[in-house]
UniProtKB/TrEMBL annotation, chain A:
Pfam families: Acyl-CoA_dh_1 (PF00441), Acyl-CoA_dh_M (PF02770), Acyl-CoA_dh_N (PF02771). GO terms for cellular component: mitochondrion. Residues 247-396 form the Acyl-CoA dehydrogenase/oxidase C-terminal domain. The keyword Repressor does not apply. This is Isobutyryl-CoA dehydrogenase, mitochondrial. It comes from Paramecium sonneborni. Residues 28-135 form the Acyl-CoA dehydrogenase/oxidase N-terminal domain. Belongs to the acyl-CoA dehydrogenase family. It catalyses: (2S)-2-methylbutanoyl-CoA + oxidized [electron-transfer flavoprotein] + H(+) = (2E)-2-methylbut-2-enoyl-CoA + reduced [electron-transfer flavoprotein]; propanoyl-CoA + oxidized [electron-transfer flavoprotein] + H(+) = acryloyl-CoA + reduced [electron-transfer flavoprotein]. Residues 144-234 form the Acyl-CoA oxidase/dehydrogenase middle domain.
Automatic annotation (TrEMBL), chain B:
The keyword Protein transport does not apply. GO terms for cellular component: mitochondrion. One of its GO terms (molecular function) is electron transfer activity. The electron transfer flavoprotein serves as a specific electron acceptor for several dehydrogenases, including five acyl-CoA dehydrogenases, glutaryl-CoA and sarcosine dehydrogenase. It transfers the electrons to the main mitochondrial respiratory chain via ETF-ubiquinone oxidoreductase (ETF dehydrogenase). It comes from Paramecium sonneborni. This is Electron transfer flavoprotein subunit beta.
Length: 397, 250
């Protein structure tokens, strides 16, 4: 008996569904239950609208609020602070499942999680109580500001400066490529407070002097607004400092490993969806009297896609677990996971496009959107080239 | 007021199953809570939110993995769970009359005022258990519920029947089986999934409550015939001739 529950019926052949390729090696019962909740939500509330959000450049604040109600916006913030208090592995599983529905919104969700985490780790009581409940419901949208027009990979060379003036900081500078820019209520700004010290200061939207560039017109991630954030003598009380002066890099390092796992998990979800669509297509499409699934060349491509997907998943989950266990090699493995998974998953999506032939080039078939969305994962959260710098540095020291 | 909600773990409705002579191939197949059972749990939770009932107990019969459905029910809002354990195939050997007998024992043990269940499970589609349970307990029943109102110990249920909608009213305790349009179950949020872990889950071996008599024997399992192609006919006469002689419609 077929029950129609508004869910997209993708990949109906039993043995090799998402679950089978899911490989629950690292997952316990709780992870599986949470994964199911996330996947159900993604299939019902995100996947059907993903194309429209991309086309209309619509930032779905209402869906993000529903995601928050599910507990997905403060996943690894401590329970005592008002978060859900789960581990990085659970977060990875959640983001992967949600990305199956829509990569872009999930990627934004990871930023919210990261900002909430930073406030939880480094904020004082007042900051935690002010912001974490609001982040947890998406009553406040958060953005993280690190990159500048002249400092991307070379982030230490940032120029945005916060000068002490009485009880305030006066901030001047500009940040670019900020996800949530102009829409977010709160900006966690990484800036210099002295020639050497990088610090994190909370700046709220509406503060005089804070303005935004126009929304960037991007290749993908269209459901997420991206803009420059400009500081022209922006005055904030010194109590907006998160942690201590000079803590900036310590904070960034603490957040970065997790951020890398998050973005890699988003790649996994998107690639999984492209993979599942391809499997159906290979069975349905016939040429030369046979389904495409009969052609060895295509079978080999598909086999490689599956292998890439599964191995990416394994290293991402392992790295997540290492962060949870505070393993000494967690940074090394996080960098490897990010670099490997984002590259492999982009290739999986790209191959999926090729396997779809001409249809892969049509927006209607969704594959090209996943390719466009996943492309940027190889660049942000640290370019994959920087990942190689980190990996080799860790190995050769 | 205490409610017992019976849930079953079945093959996921989106899966295309593989039929083997001995039954459906369950190896590695995605299993999930029966959609109608999930609707029953959701209804119980809504009744509790309206303060019409005080406690929801979810029960399932099955092997170890059956507890997944119980955890899902707990995450949706049930207060306690009972796992009646058996290694028998729940899509074959666990049959309606035996289930009804076991549930009746639990009802007598714990004194529920209401039993909610799905109208049928999507694996065997029997649509018998709720009705049999009501018979065994000598309780009123309302099946195929698409609307349930409870006040002052009276249940008013709108039933979806072939002829349309029928409304019945009875004094509780009773059995109500739930149909598709009763509600749309909520998503289990992570905080609720975590809370569910500390809710009580009682395990009872099936033998303590009843027995599986296997009174219904499955003699054959086969997939439905593969759909044959149709044909385009030239005119109505040919159509009528085919309907009479080939399809043997009249």
């Amino acid at each position: 008996m077929q029950i129609i529950r508004n869910r997209l019926m993708v990949n109906q052949i039993p043995r090799f569904g998402f679950k089978y390729l899911n490989d629950s090696t690292f997952l316990n019962e709780d992870h599986l239950q949470i994964q199911k909740a996330a996947l159900d939500f993604a299939k019902e509330k995100m996947q059907p609208y993903s194309a429209e959000w991309d086309k209309k450049h619509h930032f779905p604040k209402d869906v993000l609020r529903e995601l928050a109600a599910m507990g997905f916006s403060t996943i690894y913030v401590k329970q005592e602070s008002g978060g859900v208090g789960l581990d990085r592995l659970t977060a990875s599983v959640i983001f992967e499942a949600l990305s199956y529905g829509d990569v872009t919104t999930t990627a934004y969700l990871t930023i919210q999680n990261m900002c909430a985490y930073m406030v939880d780790q480094f904020g004082n009581e007042e900051q935690k109580q002010t912001w974490i409940p609001r982040f947890g419901t998406f009553d406040a949208f958060a953005s993280y500001c690190l990159t500048e027009p002249n400092s991307g990979s070379d982030s230490k060379n940032m120029k945005t400066f916060a000068k002490k003036d009485g009880n305030d900081y006066v901030i001047n500078g500009s940040k670019c490529f900020i996800s949530g820019g102009s829409v977010s209520d709160v900006y966690l700004l990484m800036c210099k407070t002295s020639e050497k010290d990088v610090s994190c200061i909370i700046v709220e939207k509406g503060t005089p002097g804070l303005s935004f560039g126009k929304l960037e017109d991007k290749m993908g991630w269209n459901a997420s607004p991206t803009a420059m954030v400009l500081f022209d003598n922006v005055r904030v009380p010194q109590s907006n400092l998160l942690g201590k002066e000079g803590y900036g890099f310590k904070m960034a390092m603490s957040a970065l490993d997790g951020g890398r796992i998050n973005i890699a998990s988003c790649s996994l979800g998107g690639a999984s969806y492209a993979f599942d669509l391809t499997k159906d297509y290979l069975h349905d499409r016939k040429q030369f009297g046979q389904p495409l699934a009969q052609f060895q060349g295509l079978q080999f491509k598909f086999a490689d896609m599956a292998t890439n997907l599964v191995t990416s998943r394994l290293i991402v989950r392992q790295a997540a677990q290492m962060i949870d266990n505070n393993h000494p090699d967690k940074t090394l493995y996080s960098a490897m996971a990010k670099r490997y998974a984002t590259d492999s998953c982009f290739n999986v999506a790209n191959e999926a496009l090729q396997l779809h032939g001409g249809y892969g080039y049509l927006r209607e078939y969704q594959i090209e959107r996943i390719v466009r969305d996943l492309r940027v994962h190889q660049i942000l959260e640290g370019t994959n080239e920087i990942m190689k710098v980190i990996i080799s540095r860790n190995l050769l020291k | 007021m205490k409610v017992l909600v019976a849930v079953k773990r079945v093959v996921d409705s989106g899966i295309k199953v593989r039929v083997k002579p001995e039954g459906i191939d369950l190896q590695g197949v995605k299993m999930t809570i029966n959609p109608f059972c999930e609707i029953a749990v959701e209804e119980a939770v809504r009744l509790k939110e309206k303060k019409l009932i005080a406690e929801i107990v979810a029960v399932t019969i099955g092997p170890k993995q059956g507890a997944e459905s119980l955890r899902h029910a707990l995450a949706l809002g049930a207060d306690k769970a009972i796992h009646v354990t058996t290694e028998a195939r729940i899509d074959q050997a666990v049959q309606p009359l035996d289930v009804a007998n076991i549930l009746a024992k639990l009802v007598e043990r714990d004194n529920y005022n209401l039993v909610l269940m799905g109208k049928q499970s999507i694996d065997d589609d029997f649509n018998q258990t709720g009705q049999m349970l009501a018979g065994l307990l000598d309780w009123p029943q309302a099946t195929f519920a698409s609307n349930i109102q409870i006040s002052d110990g009276i249940a008013q249920v709108v039933r979806e029947i072939d002829g349309g909608l029928q409304t019945v009213k009875f004094k509780l305790p009773g059995v109500i089986t739930c149909d598709l349009r009763l509600n749309q179950p909520r998503f289990a949020s992570v905080p609720n999934i975590m809370k569910a872990k500390s809710k009580p889950l009682e395990t009872i071996p099936l033998e303590k409550l009843g027995k599986l008599h296997n009174s219904i024997q499955i003699t054959k399992n086969e997939a439905p015939a593969i759909r044959k192609g149709g044909a385009i006919v030239e005119n109505v006469d040919v159509l009528l001739q085919k309907l009479r002689n080939e399809a043997k419609l009249f």
